[in-house]
Amino acid sequence: MRTFLSLKKEEIPPCQIYLDGVGRDYPVEGEHRIVRAIDGVNLAIQRGEFVFLTGSSGAGKSTLLQVIACEIPPTRGRVYLDGVNLTRMSARQRERRRLRFGYVPQFPSLLRKKTIHDNLFTVARLGYTKAQLPPEQRVQKALNLVGMGHAANCYPVELSMGECRRVELARAIINNPDILVLDELTANLDEDTAWDMFLFLSELNHHGLTIVMATHAKKFVNLMRRRVITMVDGHIFGDVEKGHYGDIV
């Protein structure tokens, strides 16, 4: 069977995201060896899909999300966005493509010495075009959408974990991305707060936003019945439409 590596452009199916034989290695500090965080990943995601990425800690979920969101390049294989081969691009070109994504990393990333407004304003200014609202207005709009409109002048330390994650989600959507890539967005949140987040994401998806989300929230994955991809040791072990947490067939 031919892979995307040998496909001509006109033969590539019209999916939004393609990963063909993608791998990512990391050197082990102090040792002459590498760890293959992900390897041989083949994946196609359609525009407007909502995809859950599941698996145990260390399965490669975070690395895969970083590759998808153009946060890091793959060591092997190719990544396509709307038929364009991102792995052939320069660092500057990939940086521009990153604006197509809204990305929330696994661990909190708000700058502690900046207000919530300033944390978001920096990102809003990077993605500003004349077709959009000015950055100042988009900051407030994004915060309002996630129910944090009152927090613009607060510092991250003044907010709860759940509130900070809402702010990070606001930052991810502030430039009207085509794709949201979310890494354990609801981890360590109480059930009510987590469910509110899932409902909000479902609404965004209903309006056409593609969402790829790594999560351990088994209960909510099972309730939502979206596409479920299960990773084991850096490989895709299961890929089920309208699946349950951990489905492999």
Structure description:
The protein is α/β, with parallel strands linked by helices and 249 residues long. The chain has one domain (4-240): 3-Layer(aba) Sandwich (Rossmann fold), CATH 3.40.50. It has helices at 61-68, 91-97, 116-126, 135-145, 161-173, 191-206, 218-224, and strands at residues 17-27, 34-45, 50-54, 76-81, 84-85, 101-104, 179-183, 210-214, 227-232, 235-240. The strands form two sheets. Strands 6-7-8-3-9-10 form a six-stranded mixed sheet, with helices on both faces. The chain has a four-stranded antiparallel sheet with strand order 2-1-4-5, covered by helices on one side. Strand 4 and strand 5 (84-85) form a beta hairpin. The longest helix is centred in the C-terminal third of the chain and has 16 residues, at 191-206.
Please give the structural blueprint.
Blueprint: E1 17-27, E2 34-45, E3 50-54, H1 61-68, E4 76-81, E5 84-85, H2 91-97, E6 101-104, H3 116-126, H4 135-145, H5 161-173, E7 179-183, H6 191-206, E8 210-214, H7 218-224, E9 227-232, E10 235-240
Parallel strand pairs: 3-8, 3-9, 6-7, 7-8
Antiparallel strand pairs: 1-2, 1-4, 4-5, 9-10
Helix pairs in contact: 3-4, 4-5
